[in-house]
Amino acid sequence: MKKIFSILAVSAIMLIVACGPSAEEKAKRDKEEADSIENQDAMKMELEAQKAQAIIDSLAAIEKAKVDSLAADSIAKAATKKK
Question: Could you report the per-residue pLDDT of 52-67, keeping only the tens digit for each?
Answer without folding.
Answer: 999 999 999 999 999 9
